[in-house]
Task: structure prediction
Amino acid sequence: MIIKSAEFVCSNTKVDLLPAATLPEYAFIGRSNVGKSSLINAMTNKKGLAKTSQKPGKTQLINHFIINDNWYLVDLPGYGYAQTSKKNRGDWAKFIKQYLTKRHNLQCIFVLIDSRHEPQKIDVDFCCWLGEQGLPFILIFTKSDKQSIVKSDQNMAKFRKALLKWFEEVPPMYLTSSELKSGTDMILETIHEINTGFVRPVLEN
Ligand code: GTP
Ligand code: MG
Result:
């Protein structure tokens, strides 16, 4: 899929205030600092579209971007940010989980995992929660430019094994680097395929 346009639409904490749920939507989620916002910029070829930072905790809201006037890409705040208070973490869980479970046009959740690390409990737990909710997800391993392909492959295989303790089947896994703009085509192709089958809902007034 070719990206012809990518524009910021709005930022929200309230699910009621999100744009009308008439277009297919895809969300990026994962640990703070894993590279969600950077990957959105790499995919859309638009530096600065989503705000990034070296410090974790940069994205705090539900950010909608409209792509090709046809579908939404959503940048979410990260989980596991140690310096956030317990109350803030509770609030995160509440509003993000509400968004993920209530957003009817959400077609797929892309869960980002840092390819440099062995499986982390917080990521495996999050995938299990998605599985329990019956929410479709795909795993995106980030920052592949930071180590050898062999190392990334090993960590991906370990993650697959960790999930197989809980799942009968493991969702697709893609290896990406925002720095090298690699792996983004596979994500865009997946989105294109899902978009093709999307039936626009008729909304009541
Ligand atoms: P929060 O919004 O805080 O949850 O973080 P995020 O997941 O949106 O991460 P963000 O995109 O802001 O990136 C965090 C840091 O990682 C930044 O310094 C990025 O430049 C860096 N980074 C992201 N992706 C890559 C990558 O593929 N390769 C390299 N080398 N650095 C990356
Ligand atoms: Mg971010």
In short: The longest helix spans residues 86-102. Residues 32-38, 52-54, 56-59, 77-78, 142-143, 145-146, 177-179 surround guanosine-5'-triphosphate (ligand 1) (CB under 6 Å).
